[in-house]
Write a structure and sequence with these properties.
3 domains, 349 residues, GMP Synthetase, Chain A, domain 3, Rossmann fold, 7-stranded mixed sheet, single chain, Alpha-Beta Plaits
């Protein structure tokens, strides 16, 4: 079976493999092929590979893999890896324990297994977890997640975070240019903010969850972009119309004022798909003369993009001309419902 492979000269192999691993793109089911001084590195998603790499399709041999949880259980469990934590979603406590035992006895690099105990809830979008297995090294819900060359310290019990959106975040980040001014209205621990800043943008991130903002500041430091990141705890609607304050002593700015950010942004991210429309007036207030808006929505598959476009046009009013540049389906959210993104350009008239 043909699989996508990154083709690189042998002398660049380790550097390239490391970058693909940081982006969680390495295909561990197939072997690396060496041929005439060229390496072929199997990857999991050809579309997510940075444009600088050459992707070709080959038939590499299957890799001899270690013991997987399924080998020990006799069935394929559903789980998600975030750093060195494995998250499951099981209603049966006995089944959850069986899966946790198999995960820790397998060759997966995991130190804790946690089970979803609630849906995402509240204004801070946090869920509860049951700790099913814990190696006891540190908090069983805190880990370091890596994607596309960035690393994020995150505590799943205190903040909202989804590794499933890594490819979508990378798609947006690749549009960012050096010197831009970007504003993430619901920033969390910084999965949009950090890669934007690493590409040279000045970025402001706000979030209602004060713990998420603390992690955002830490992640800015971890990734060497503190000087380009402003982290603000609070409702973005209050932030934009609020008062100014003081600069943090640790180098990551904490404050905002209407004078600074009204009409300031070249790019605005609105990743709050259930209720982003409630914040469109604020997004328009943030927009500069020529601003790209990344608007996330959840709608029926019958008309996934129409309601969002209509809401954006209404909020823009006569002040901006609206150009819908991309209508993009991120993932299936529920039966007959889609999580979508509209990349929209607002140009002041």
């Amino acid at each position: 079976m043909d699989v996508p492979c990154v083709r690189v000269p042998r002398e660049r192999g380790e550097e390239t493999r490391r970058r693909l691993a940081e982006a969680d793109l390495v295909d561990h089911d197939h072997e690396i092929v060496v041929e005439d001084g060229t390496l072929y590195l199997p990857v999991t998603d050809a579309a997510a590979v940075p444009d600088e790499f050459d992707v070709v399709f080959r038939e590499p041999p299957d890799r001899e893999t270690g013991t997987a949880p399924a080998d020990l259980l006799g069935f394929e469990p559903s789980y998600e890896r975030i750093g060195d934590i494995v998250a499951i979603d099981e209603d049966d406590a006995a089944r959850a324990e069986r899966i946790a035992d198999a995960v820790l006895d397998s060759d997966l690099p995991a130190r804790a297994v946690i089970d979803r105990a609630s849906k995402v809830k509240g204004e801070t979008r946090v869920r509860e977890w049951d700790i099913v297995a814990d190696m006891g090294e540190r908090s069983p819900t805190e880990t370091v997640h890596r994607e596309y060359g960035c690393e994020f310290l995150v505590d799943l019990a205190e903040v909202y975070f989804s590794p499933r959106l890594a490819t979508e975040r990378h798609r947006v980040a690749e549009q960012v240019e050096d010197g831009e001014r970007a504003f993430d209205m619901f920033a969390g621990v910084g999965p949009f903010v950090i890669p934007f800043a690493k590409r040279g943008a000045e970025v402001v991130g706000t979030d209602l969850n004060e713990r998420a903002i603390e992690y955002l500041r830490e992640n800015a430091r971890r990734n060497g972009v503190s000087e380009r990141v402003t982290a603000i705890a609070g409702d973005v609607r209050d932030v934009v119309s609020g008062s100014s304050g003081a600069t943090a002593s640790d180098g990551v700015r904490e404050v905002v004022s209407e004078r600074e950010y009204g009409g300031w942004a070249d790019r605005v991210v609105m990743n709050l798909p259930h209720s982003a429309d409630d914040f469109l007036d604020t997004a328009v207030a943030l927009a500069g003369d020529d601003c790209t808006l990344h608007y996330y929505d959840i709608q029926s598959e019958d008309d996934p993009f129409g309601p969002g476009e209509a809401a954006i046009r209404e909020a823009a009013g006569e002040e901006y001309e609206v150009f819908v540049e991309t209508c993009h389906t991120v993932r299936s959210y529920a039966p007959h419902e889609l999580n979508v993104c509209l990349d929209v350009r607002l140009v002041r008239q």
